Every structure is written in C-alpha cells, then in structure tokens.
Amino acid sequence: MTTHPTAGHLVTLTSDFGMRDPYAAAMKGVMLDVCPDLRLVDLSHEIAAQDVLEGALFLAAALPYFPAGTVHLAVVDPGVGGDRRPVAVRAGGQVIVCPDNGLLTLFTRHHTVEEAREITNPAFMRTDLSATFHGRDLFAPAAARLACGASLAQAGPAIDGLVTLDVPEATRDGSAVRGEVLRIDRFGNAISNISRALLDGRTAVEVRARDVALPGLHRTYADVARGEPLALFESNGYLAIAVSEGDASAAFDIARGSTVEVTLSE
Q1: CA distances for 94 relative to 14, 115, 129, angstroms
Q2: Which end of the chain is less packed: N or C, by CB atoms within 10 Å?
C-alpha cells in the first residue's frame, strides 16, 4: 500500500465556531488526546455561521499554500446529524477531513481528487458520538489519526463523487463579461467570480457594479487616491471592486450576489 507521510503532524482548523464558545477548543483537546505531538494551526473560526459557500471559498484560497501532506480539519456543518457523509479526501497533495456538503467544491475544481473515503471506522471517532457535534467527536479524532500516520484507507470505504455546491460562474458574450460578487472581505472589497482568464488578454474599458462605473482596471490599491474606487484583480486572480483605504461594499451597497459587468475593448 502506498503511504503518504503528513507534514510533520500538522493539522489546520477551519470552522464557523468563532472563538467565544468552547467548540474550537474542544476539537483541539480531542486531537491532542489522540496524538500529543500534533502541531495545530487555526486558519479561521470566523466563517459566517452555517455558510458552506464562504467556507468553500476560504479553503480554495488557503489550502494550496500549505506543505504537501498537511491535514486540514474543516467544519462548517449545518447538516450535522443528518445524512451527509463525513469524509477524508486527498487532493492537491493535501488531506481534508470535513462533511461532504460542498465545502471542497472550489478547491477540487483546480486540484484533482486522488482519494476519497467515507469515515466509518469507529476507531476514528470518539466512543460517545454526539448527534450535534461531529466536529469534536468524529472529524477531530479522524484528523488526528491521519496526521499521526493512519492511512485514508483505514478511515472507511472509498467513495466516488463528492457533493458540490451550485456556485455561479461568470460568462463572456462578445465584449461583455458578466459575473457576480461571491464574497465581501473584511476590508469591504467586493470579490467577484470573474477570473483574469475570461478577459482573454483584452483591455477592460469599463467595470460596473451597482451604481458605480469604473474606467478600466488598476494594478494596486495605491493607484488611486485615498477614498477613490477602483477595480483590480486581487491576489487570487479574481476581479474585485474596492475603495483605496475604504470600504466598497458600504460605499456602493454591494453585497454577495451583486452583478458585476466588464466591457472589453473590441
């Protein structure tokens, strides 16, 4: 059997639990009880409550930068206790332990799934399995065992076809590119689903969202004066509407789902 060493017993944690409640701490306690040598790294516990799409966007943007073999525990699980499957997935050199509810939709668009297993082995779970906190009782011990050397095959049977979210994709029709805002970051930048590739090397003449029309694209936030709006491709390669040292979402009432249109040169 082929083995895949983990990255120095490294486990990351992503959830919608916040830090006020004991949920994230309990998961860490369970993992350290299973394997005291783990290195635990909090990525975020500030995913909006029960927002699987936000979790999917976060994972797709963060996971590719970790060492191969890192184990990622991701719990945004509004269907906990229901019929969604708990899974362990190897893709893009990473191992992700999460509910099969679409959290991996965007990551697996660009990273081939090498192996996927439903977690059914009782040895990968706590004996007292709560119906409402699988993060602590199922996903955390499973992640710890994988990070400390267990194979995905030990977790449970192989599965085909992970659940995917219906994430809107931008389109191009001649000189018009149309998309929508998928997320607002903490700076108020409105980040769309329009990738640089959709422009096909052509110049953006105008970018429009809600009541703001912007003349083309800039390279950095500092290209315009403080408080001025601009459009640019952010660090993950998607078109964003921003305000230099300001908040574009508040300034122009832009939210998730707002339409973004780009007019290209002929």
Answers
A1: 14, 11, 26
A2: N
